[in-house]
Write a structure and sequence with these properties.
The chain is an alpha+beta fold. 37% of the residues lie in helices and 38% in strands. The protein has a four-stranded antiparallel sheet. A hairpin with a 2-residue loop joins strand 2 and strand 3.
């Protein structure tokens, strides 16, 4: 199963590294990643494979939300199919 991870906040050193380490702790594999910095704002979107995740998706989402708060960022995890349905035009 795939999920979409979005990260948004003020740019600073270490955002990608800390986010990837946190995901690795849940045994989540990053399949694709895109990031950009617009002025001082950092945005990143990842497509991840949660097939081998060591916790249920809801717990992963809560854990990454908490990690985001700790980092001063917004980190959201959604199932890929739900993300696509919400963003379909």
């Amino acid at each position: 199963m795939k999920a979409v991870v979005t990260v948004v906040g003020k740019d600073r050193v270490g955002i990608i590294g800390e986010t990837c380490i946190a995901l690795a702790g849940y045994n989540v594999n990053i399949l694709d990643i895109s990031q950009t910095v617009m002025q001082e704002y950092f945005t990143m979107m990842m497509v991840v494979d949660v097939t081998n995740c060591n916790v249920p998706l809801a717990e992963l989402s809560k854990g990454m939300d908490a990690k985001g708060q700790e980092m001063g960022l917004s980190i959201r995890v959604q199932r890929e199919d739900i993300f696509e349905a919400m963003h379909r035009v």
